[in-house]
TrEMBL record:
Coiled coil regions in record: none
Protein family (similarity comment): Belongs to the actin family.
Domain of life, per lineage: Eukaryota
Species for this entry: Candidozyma auris
Regions of compositional bias (Acidic residues) in chain numbering: 155-179
Bias kind Basic residues: ranges: 49-60
Region (Disordered): 1-73, 131-192, 280-302
Bias type Polar residues, positions: 17-33, 280-291
Protein name: Actin-related protein 8
Biased composition (Basic and acidic residues): 1-15, 35-48, 61-70
Amino acid sequence: MSETPVIKEEHDEHTVVPSSPAATPSAETQAPVSTEREKTETEDGEHEKKKRKTTSKTVRKPSEEVLQRRREGRIKAAATIAQNLKKTGIGRFEEQNGFKLTAVKTVPLINQKNYFADYLKKDEQATLIRNWRNEKQSGPTVGKGGAKGDKKTEEDDDDDEDDENDENDNEDNDDDDNDNTTGEHRVKVRAGHDTIVFHPGSSCIRLGRATEPAPTAVPAVVAFKREIKEMDGHRKTPLRTVNEDGEVDFGSRFDEMKAVVTKDFKARMRYYKRRIQQNSRESAADFNSKQVGEPIDDHNDPEAKSWLSPDDEFLQKNEFIAGSKALQIPITESLNTWHQRFPVVNGMFNQDPNVYRSPQELYGDVTRLTLAALEEIGVGTTPQELANLKCLFVIPDLYDKAYIETWCDLLLHSVCFGKVGIIQEAVAATFGAGASSACVVDVGAEVTTVACVDEGLIINDSRIRLDYGGKHITEALTKLLLQQNFPYSDIDLSFFNDDWQLAETIKQNYATFNDADIAVQLYDFYKRKPGQKTEKFLFKVFDEVMLAPLGLFYPDLFEIAKDVRERPLLPESFDQYTGEPNNPYSKAHENLQFGSAYSDMTDEALLIKLAEEKANSKQSSAPKALNTQGQIDTSSPVTAPLDKAIIESITNAGIATDFNKAKKLYDNLLVVGGGLAKFDNFDVLLNDRINIWRPKFLSSSTLDDVLAYVTKEKDKTDNKRKQMIEEAKKKKAGGKSADDIELTEEELEGIENATQYYVDLDRADGLSDQGQTVAVNVLPPPKDYDPRELTWKGGSVFARLKVVNEMWITAADWELLNSRTLYYKSLFNY
């Protein structure tokens, strides 16, 4: 039998094969319908068929030929554009050079909530701190019985054995200077033996090893050789005019201020019931006019000065001479080959274009002066010897960053110290006096500073810099003596090596604040000029020895020029990110600069101002940047009286912290420097001057209660003013929304006048009288210690502490981060 072949159907992939045959409705299931319903369904079916046909026509795809023609057209257009671009020279050549459209890879965004970074949140992430810790850990750790040849300094002992007694801090191992030391012979030195405490000033540099009891003062002067045939236009200092009758005139302004100071002096003498004899000035002037010099031999001169010979070999082979030897050069009007200049003036670098023509010339003198000072204290000046030494640099309180950074760079790279650290003057003074908190008044040669120190840190808003000092007292005393027919009428203070030294000696020996010493007194002095025989003069003084120091409280007597000091050599420091000046800011200094001192205000204005400032200080609890409120203008001199400056400094310190600390600051006035502390009875006079100018409310111990009352009443007035403004707006709106209503200037002025705040002084006086008067006390310097050296002594004490090891800056650190190292390596906010 033949089988029937099975034919398999091949379906195209686009052919739709039904899964099952369509079901045919049976006649039994069909229900009878009416003729009208059948007609309606027929019309609907025809309408759907037409709609499907129309839709199929609109979505019909183009043919392959049409698509191909479109594709070729686009390619042809692109080729034409590329050809045109190639002709113009701006074509793209990705295929030839392999460049992509962009080399920047797209970085996907991240959700910051899922990530955490501790960048710069740990000390180990700061390079300087990490290097110091690594050096500390990797340093020599061999004990006293270590292997031969191991060297271990005292600082290593202190770091490795923190649990040792303080006695072990003074027991040290090898000194860095002893290169021949072996493990068998260990030279023990005291802590700080390899540290030089360096305190530069306008008149001298005080320096020495931290282990020495006192520093060495080296004059900050540099002599240089310059051929000048004659001194054209030279005028004697101070400038004077001699009348026909022989009277010396210094101008009407000086005479007016002399009369003001004399009036205050007489009032003080009457208060203390000191009798003043009539015609005392005339008798002293008449005696002085008849005096002539008495030549004396060198062996009879108590302080004979040795001058270098003009033909000396030392002068012939040197072009520059710095330090004490520069004062031994015979410089006169006839011997004018050598000249003198001072690298540091007014606590800053000397940028006078008539003295220094370039920064390199200035830096050269600073380096020569530093090396000469190191030679005078017996320290080797070769780079190999200085590399083993450390330098603790004492900087001003209200410093200039460019000045500090330049000094650090010179000490590390030009002088070649191994390490350098910094400390502020006021902090060093408290270390020297052994006081944790004090108001430090530093009267220097050309600059006077006031700063309040609280537990080892300076309160920034209390810093004040005044542009007068002991040099101006010397000039004022010279003017007063010349008006009294001073026997040496040709004295010229521009000759620093002889006449200036004479005026300084007279001031130091005879100037005083002691009322009992004010009478016609007979004194003598020795005139020493190079190439001439020493002469002895007698002269009489009366009140000149007290009027000149009183200029500290009447600075107009000094006739300080108000000219703006230019900075052609050393530009001002600016922030690298914002471009704004970043020198430190002080509220107290700004108030004195613009003449808005608290001691000059009325009682009502004082209380309102204090309440506002105290409220602002409480609102800004976070520490501010150094100069967020403004920039201290150091180019304009500030010449406020010293007593008002002290009151301003302590008041701003109380605002920044607490007025209870102001009581402690008034009780701990520390006066350092040679401009004031060397005068007899200066503490009594300073106490009297502060009590005279200090307002009553600042003298009360209940100042906080008074300010609380003023603040409460002021808040009530402010709330009343706001309420009146809202009511006026609602009334003007007439029932509508008052948000967009604005009051006129007349309406606001009326509300302001109606709600003007007045302090009830009777109530404030009552609260003030409930307290006690805050006493003023001037701390005496340590026994048998010169107050001029107290700041240096504090630096030497600080240099022997363990904490100083964290402050050292090396040359490698400075080259890596430059001035940023001072931010990491200083104990204050640089």
